[in-house]
Amino acid sequence: MRNIIILFMVLSFCFTCDDALQKDFPVLTGPYLGQKPPGMIPEVFAPGILANGGTPFNSAFSPDGSEFYYSVSSEKEKKDQIWYTRRINNVWSKPEIAPFSGQYDDCDVSFSPDGQRLFFISLGRPLPGQLVQTKRNFIWFIERRETGCTDPQLLEYPGNRGGVFPVSTANKTLYFSARLEESFGSGDIYRSRWVQGVYKDPENLGPVINSKYGESDAHISMDESFLIFTRWKDPDNTGGGQADLYISFSQNDGSWSKLVNLGPSINTDHIEFCPSFSPDGEYFFFSRFIEETNDCNIYWVDAKVIEELIPKNFT
Q1: Around Cβ 240, how many Cβ atoms within 10 Å?
Q2: Are the C-beta atoms of 124 and 109 separated by less than 8 Å?
């Protein structure tokens, strides 16, 4: 995509779809790729539609619900790629690799609340002004402008040492995971506040959230009232599993509440990660990896499962 400006289109994040790709693909209409909404038990989202020769994980709908981006661990390419589909005249296009992805190891895609930025991480993508491939994940973004979309841009913040799973709030604060010198464990959750047009020094969320076990994949609500994330190798994980999803609530004094495991309706003795919500907040999405079968899928469930965990005195 270097030096290429893709024409702005109102209904997509600047990308187009080839009508020929629709051949041998089912006609999917309506919201959520035409899938029947789930109940209180998690179900695989769009089974048989997202695999694309690999294993799908991590997902993000655009704020208006007309685009769906997700990551695929490609067995053929031996790397992660970002795929997308969009709804045109109420019909979803056949998924294809996003134009900015495929050359490097890309994943962890998310939209800014206003839909103007698409965040993702990339391994190997050379940093600005350099030719050598990077050996760690850095956060990048594409921005929609009146003249079109930008090429991928490195997200700049003081002391940038890389990061994964970027999620932006309504006030542009960015939450992400990283393994830095001051981290409590194998990886911690940080946030960088947006002040006068720039990101400030990353703040470690502290020992209530972060631990010696390792935390990642933090989804923050737009108003920053609660945080859902993955904790790795905690002996209290369901069935002693590798990774569980936990939730914590922001307190009036700015601290975080004691962690609550999302429970057996979400967590199993496998790996649960990559949490997110549908734009309307009605459905909760996450990924589950089953090590024994090397199987990974995106799941969704009625968000009431999460609402039931909210403390009665939480406002």
Answers
A1: 10
A2: no
For the stretch 114-127, pLDDT in tens is 999 999 999 999 99
How many other C-beta atoms lie within 10 A of the C-beta of residue 48? 7
Average pLDDT of the chain to the nearest whole number? 90
| SS3 state of residue 19 | helix
Rounded Cα distance, 186 and 203, in Å? 17
Residue 290 included in any domain: yes
Is 136's pLDDT higher than 60? yes
> What are residue 230's phi and psi, to 5 degrees?
-100, 135
Domain that holds residue 213: 33-307
Q: Which pTM value belongs to this model?
A: 0.91
pLDDT at 1 over 60: no
Distance of alpha carbon 198 from the chain centroid: 22
Alpha-carbon distances of 254 from 60, 153, 199, 224, 310, rounded to whole Å? 28, 32, 20, 10, 17
- Number of domains forming the structure of the chain: 1
Q: Indicate the residue type of 33.
A: L
- pLDDT for residue 182 is more than 90: no
Q: Is residue 98 part of a domain?
A: yes
Q: Is residue 239 part of a domain?
A: yes
Give backbone dihedrals phi and psi of 107, rounded to 5 degrees, phi first: -170, -165
Beta bridge partners of 250: 256
Alpha-carbon distance of 209 to 256, in angstroms, equals: 7
Residue written as tokens 């799908």? Answer: 56
Phi-psi region of 46 (alpha: psi -120 to 50; beta: other; left: phi over 0): left
To which residue do tokens 């990551």 refer?
Answer: 71
